[in-house]
Amino acid sequence: DVIHILQDPSHYDAKTRSYMAIAAAHFDEPEAAQALKKSLQNTEEAEEVTLHVLWSLGVLKNTSALPEIIPFLKSGEADLRKMAVYVLGAIGDKSAIHYLRPLLNDAVEDIRWNAALSLARLGNDSGFEVLLKMLDRQSLVLNARLGEPEIETIMINATKGLALIKRSESLETLKKISREDKNLKVRQAAMESLHYQKEALRV
Asked: What is d(CA 135, CA 159) in angstroms, rounded to the nearest whole number?
């Protein structure tokens, strides 16, 4: 029933089919992944549905979906590019690194951030400089569309990204944030990343 509704735009609206895309992520079955991939091939599909289909493939960590996901990195819709970048990191297939690197120079800041984080999840440090910029509180504060909750999330995610790539050059930045940042959660995340990196670099 889930697959039938997802693939029937003539009888079900985009919101309903988006719910079905989310539901499909709970079925770790070949039929569910195949249906989601088929939806990505529909060039007439509503953006709302496509976003949820991409997300579900990320939840399923479906590596076979890479050929269907990668074209969305060049989508004219920023939200689709952003989701595709995130999903490729979530899936965890290192063959996506080559396709993600160009997104570090995307015109949209959120996409650059997602690209750096996804690359870090794949063990690649190409987004190192972007991750450091994500920890520049002053720059984030000057970004008028960001409030403290968003800044907190961005900075915490950046510390996690740095922990994954383990570059010694980030240690001083993390030390400063762990001692001086006004947000307790950000300081804690920086301390955890610092500890993780020191242990990794000691090995």
From this structure: 8
